[in-house]
Amino acid sequence: WDDADFSRGVGTTFYQEFFTLNSAKPPFVHDVEAKIRRYMKTSYSAVWTLKITWEKAPAHTARTDTRRTSTYQAVLTTDGFRSYLLILYQDGGMRWDYSQLAATNVLIGYS
């Protein structure tokens, strides 16, 4: 993660909240549940899910270059006992120039 810079009017943030306890689940929530079941090898039924999308978000250094943007999502979900976070990037990956970051000991990946 890094700081996005929306100060130049480039990029947009959207969010959508899904309350699914005692209600019909939209296809998006079914997809999230399927991913968690597949990756975590556990049963899972969401009662709440939040999807946040950052579209064409420029990196913090956008004061000098607003052309290198990235589109990505964070999906938070819970069944009331366990919570998960899925991070999804647009095809083509993160387009920010991480070589310009102040910190040089940055890791990209997951554990």
Automatic annotation (TrEMBL):
InterPro entries documented for this protein: Epithelial_Barrier/Signaling, NIDO_dom
Per its UniProt entry, which superkingdom is the organism in? Eukaryota
Single Gene Ontology BP term? cell-matrix adhesion
Kindly state which keywords UniProt assigns to this record, in alphabetical order.
Answer: Disulfide bond
Care to name a GO molecular-function term for this sequence?
ErbB-2 class receptor binding
Q: Which Pfam families match?
A: NIDO
Keyword hit for Ion transport:
no
Task: Tell me what this protein is called.
Answer: MUC4 protein
